[in-house]
Design a protein that fits this description.
Distance between the termini: 19 Å
Radius of gyration: 21 Å
Order of helices and strands: HEEEEEHEHHHEEEHHHHHEEHEE
Shape: globular
CATH class of the largest domain: Alpha Beta
Helix content: 40-55%
Strand order of the largest sheet: 5-4-6-3-1-13
CATH topology of the largest domain: Ribosomal Protein S5, domain 2
Strand content: 15-25%
Bound molecules: alpha-D-galactopyranose
Number of domains: 2
Number of helices: 11
CATH architecture of the largest domain: 2-Layer Sandwich
Structural class: alpha+beta
Number of strands: 13
Length: about 375
């Protein structure tokens, strides 16, 4: 792969002076719980986006990415017809609303090995990458790591229009090599824990079916959750969806008008319990039991939250049928990626079978990556 430094040289005919990196993330379990005040268990992966840059004397930001150059001015932070550029403009816009602005623009070349729109948080990586660049150029101490995470999420919510939770931006920034993170998305307390799968591998399966989240059903799900909660409100004390007591919820379920809203809430409550159980099992080194909980998580996404899809279900089923201990979709779903965990001795065979079966059943190529838990977004030079 050509480096970001070389791309910069090609695009701007001079050498870059700074370099940054932001990783994507995979989520072990805890899908959509971050929109219900629950827990998540993600980790940053080794794939990500590199940025090589050099300051300019004026207020332009010129970005070279995916073979095209796109520009905007720090004085004109409005939506662009260039779709991917909006994730960058949006970050500058949101930082500005918080009183943080750079004096000068810069030229920047981006290089990525992170598949885009694939459920591995390519958009959060881009947002956090530019948040990290702004942090490094702003007055020392003015922008904290949590500011980057929160402003990146705000970019997604207010500038892009996706009502997502905080998991992706958090994982891209706070990732730590060989660790996963248990984050309580209500209090924002989190802890690192070794992602030690003993004699097992963790594989990411890319369905190569892309999805644009804003067009997908993500915001619909958020609305369904809210409607279910509002039906329950007269009958139950409600803080966050994930904190509802499951027995009490079932007792009051007849008050929920939309059957889908019932299923979404059921998923959130039980998924949150699964996250806590998974984190404990992982700590105790009980990998086989941990995998069983991941499997339950996938079925819940498939039948109750209904955010899986033919491609992801096919990948998960093929992995399990061929001997994986655990498999589930990761991220927002609909398309994108799934993960599986298998005994190291079985991994290659399972990968081959999944690739063959997926081609046969869905007519697409599946790419598999050995996942490594990695450090979060940072300045490299
Ligand atoms: C997307 C969102 C996250 C989270 C996941 C599903 O990745 O950005 O906030 O809700 O979907 O777990």
């Amino acid at each position: 792969m050509i480096t970001a430094d070389n791309l910069f040289l090609q695009a701007f005919k001079t050498a870059s002076e700074e370099q940054y990196f932001a990783p994507g993330r995979a989520n072990l379990i805890g899908e959509y719980t971050d929109v219900g005040g629950g827990n998540v268990l993600p980790f940053a992966i080794q794939l990500g986006i590199f940025a090589s840059l050099k300051d300019r004397e004026d207020r332009m930001v010129n970005v070279f990415s995916l073979g095209e150059k796109a520009s905007f001015s720090l004085d004109d932070l409005v939506k662009s017809p260039v779709r991917w550029l909006n994730y960058i403009i949006g970050v500058f816009y949101i930082f500005k609303t918080h009183g943080i602005e750079l004096e000068k623009g810069f030229d920047v070349a981006l290089n990525s090995d992170l598949p885009t729109a694939s459920g591995l948080s390519s958009s959060a990586a881009l947002e956090v990458l530019f948040g990290t660049i702004i942090q490094s150029k702003a007055e020392k101490g003015k922008v904290s790591d949590w500011d980057i995470v929160k402003f990146a999420k705000e970019t997604e919510n207010k500038f892009i229009g996706l009502n997502s939770g905080i998991m992706d931006q958090f994982a891209c920034k706070f990732g730590k090599k060989d660790n996963c993170m248990l984050l309580d998305t209500r209090t924002l307390e989190f802890s690192y824990s070794p992602l030690d799968l003993k004699n097992n591998d963790l594989i990411i399966m890319n369905s190569n079916k892309q999805r644009g989240l804003t067009e997908s059903k993500y915001n619909d799900r958020v609305k369904e959750i809210a409607s279910g909660l509002s039906d329950l409100k007269p009958y139950m004390e409600i803080k966050d969806a994930c904190l509802l007591n499951y027995e009490e919820f079932e007792k009051n379920a007849s008050h929920i008008k939309d059957p889908n809203a019932y299923k979404r809430l059921k998923h959130l409550i039980l998924e949150n319990q699964r996250v806590l159980k998974s984190a404990a099992l992982l700590k105790e080194g009980k990998i086989d039991e941990f995998c069983k909980v991941l499997n339950e998580g996938h079925q819940s996404m498939r039948y109750d939250f209904e955010s899986s899809g033919k491609e992801l279900d096919t990948l998960v089923d093929l992995a399990l049928k061929n001997g994986a201990k655990g498999a589930r979709m990761t991220g927002a779903g609909y398309a994108g990626c799934a993960i599986f965990i298998s005994d190291k001795r079985d991994t290659k065979r399972i990968i081959n079978e999944v690739i063959k079966g997926y081609k046969r059943e869905c007519g697409r190529k599946c790419d598999c990556y050995y996942a490594e838990a990695s450090d979060g977004a940072r300045r490299i030079k």
